[in-house]
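thoughts on my protein:
***
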Amino acid sequence: MTPNLTELEILKLLWKEQPLTAKEIHECLVSKYGWSYSSTRKTLERMGSKGILEIGSLGNKKTYKALLEKIPTLASCMQEFATNVLELDEPLPVTMFADSRIIGKEEVRELEELLNKLSEDEKER
């Protein structure tokens, strides 16, 4: 499953620190999206229904954890972009992610392997 851009923003927060409450997530995203708190909660509930998030509880508050792993999810997003938007037949070079704030140096190798595999799978279709 490839998350949409809004879902990806929420996942990026959760990959850095989880679990988070709806309020914590909302406070991080309100300046970017201008959402109401109820819109944030609705998005989180929808992501839970889609199997993107695990919904738990801490006292009387709902908490959210990412169910999608970071590197496979990012690789899928990148391959989809390379194929559908850029119409590339080859995987994106991982050197372009060297200065990423979300992909650590130790994760670059895993990302490269996944991008190569996804590119090969795409060619076979």
Q: What stands out?
A: The first strand starts at residue 20 and ends at 21.
